[in-house]
């Protein structure tokens, strides 16, 4: 089919997602400053990633182009506004990144 997929069985991976940019507004989280929810989520993600790496588990983060200036996922990549699930464009971008990262291990 044109693309050879290398399987790396000695390393485990996890994937993480970013909080959608519109979540704060849609969830009516008015007691947070702009970007504060993304900041909190990203700090948690960073800490979780450190712990996973310490256990030998790699973590695939979303591509940089998926983030806004606060570190939230741009709504253009959300399945719908405020949704933590990405749309097809996000999925394609993320899958390409995961394949690049896993191919680099082969």
What does the model show?
It is a single chain. This protein has helices at 23-26, 36-54, 88-103; strands at residues 12-15, 57-60. The protein contains 3 helices and 2 strands. With 106 residues, the chain is mostly helical. The protein has a two-stranded parallel sheet.
Q: Give the topology string: H per helix, E per strand.
A: EHHEH
| Sequence of strands across the biggest β-sheet | 1-2
Uncertain spans, ≥5 residues at pLDDT below 50?
Answer: none
| Helix-strand category | mainly alpha
Tell me the layout of helices and strands.
Layout: E1 12-15, H1 23-26, H2 36-54, E2 57-60, H3 88-103
Parallel strand pairs: 1-2
Short description:
The chain is mainly alpha-helical. It has three helices and two strands; from the N terminus they run βααβα. The two termini are 19 Å apart.
């Amino acid at each position: 089919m044109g693309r050879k997929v290398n399987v790396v069985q000695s390393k485990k991976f996890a994937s993480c997602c970013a909080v959608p940019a519109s979540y704060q507004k849609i969830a009516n989280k008015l007691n947070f400053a702009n970007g504060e929810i993304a900041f909190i989520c990203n700090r948690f993600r960073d800490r979780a990633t450190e712990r996973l790496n310490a256990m030998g588990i790699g973590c695939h983060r979303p591509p940089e182009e998926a983030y806004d200036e606060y570190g939230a996922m741009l709504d253009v990549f959300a399945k719908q506004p405020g949704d933590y699930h990405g749309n097809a464009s996000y999925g394609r971008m993320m899958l390409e990144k995961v394949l690049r990262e896993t191919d680099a291990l082969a």
